[in-house]
Design goal:
single chain, alpha/beta, globular, nucleic acid binding, Euk-Arch_PrmC-MTase
Length: about 280
């Protein structure tokens, strides 16, 4: 099924789901300059209040590149990045997929207006067509894109911080994740579940402190299978890029595992015994 959403080469304001506010859509449409390796760093727009590409950004793009063959066979029609920041990730996804016929539609959201503008500039510099929506997570897109999105990519605010830092203005919002770095992640997951199509895939960055096994259990109860695409350790953190996809019987399997799980197991041993690697989806 094709979902045609008309894009215009202008910035417009439309009503938001939050009373008294408006969401600004910034659309870029330029001739194609597509490559298959991701966005070029020197073309990425920068602003002091926007998170620049870093280890976690590179890990997510590497995961997409590692899964590129599957993504091409997947033939997504609509892709979305939640929390787009500089636009490096959504632009990388678009460039590695290529789309000379302009059949794939790309959306990106951010609560930071400077990030929305940076993403517009980054996508323009690469000749990529992206509609950038200024909104919290993707709440204002829920009804319009419900069950329509084939690929979602998220590098969420995952750093454990005091709860009062969550949702602050400016660049702090890009990393402040609250207790266990989960405050924003736990809000993102149900939104993604609403947006993903029946064949939809989610790629998300997590930190060890985020309790990724618990996240996978939560998604498993919603009917998602999962696997680690990239695992990377730096001096400061251990990152996992996890891919989720719908699987009809997955909720029952996870509920069964939860019933037999012993409290003495370490999360890492649970992580390695799970079925995340059992299918090269």
């Amino acid at each position: 099924m094709e979902h045609n959403i008309e894009l215009e080469s202008v910035s417009i304001s439309i009503p938001s789901v939050r009373a008294g506010e408006s969401e600004k859509r910034i659309v870029s449409k330029l001739p194609s300059k597509i490559t298959s390796r991701g966005a070029q760093i020197h073309l990425v727009s920068r602003h002091p209040e926007v998170y620049e590409p870093c280890d976690d950004s590179f890990a997510l793009v590497d995961a997409l590149l590692a899964d590129r063959t599957n993504l091409l066979e997947h033939k997504p029609m609509l892709c979305l990045e939640i929390g787009c920041g500089s636009g490096y990730i959504i632009t990388s996804l678009a460039t590695m997929l290529g789309d000379e016929t302009n059949t794939i539609q790309y959306f990106a959201t951010d609560i930071n207006p400077h990030a929305a503008e940076a993403t517009r500039k980054t996508s323009e510099a690469h000749g990529v067509h992206v509609e950038v929506v200024l909104t919290d997570i993707a709440l204002s897109l829920g009804k319009r894109l419900s069950r329509m999105v084939d690929v979602v990519v998220v590098n969420p605010p995952y750093v454990p911080t005091p709860e009062e830092e969550v949702g602050c203005e400016g660049i702090t919002a890009s990393w402040a994740g609250g207790e266990n770095g989960r405050s924003v992640i736990d809000r993102i997951l149900p939104v993604v579940d609403e947006l993903l199509s029946e064949k939809g895939w989610l790629y998300m960055v997590t930190l060890t402190a985020n309790k990724p096994l618990q996240i996978c259990r939560m998604m498993g109860e919603r009917g998602y299978a999962s696997r680690i695409v990239v695992q990377r350790s730096t001096e400061e953190e251990s990152l996992h890029v996890i891919k989720f996809w719908r699987e009809v019987d997955e909720a029952m399997k996870w509920q069964s595992r939860a019933a037999t799980q012993t409290a003495s197991d370490s999360w890492f041993s649970q992580f390695s015994r799970s079925t995340f690697w059992r299918r090269n989806n």
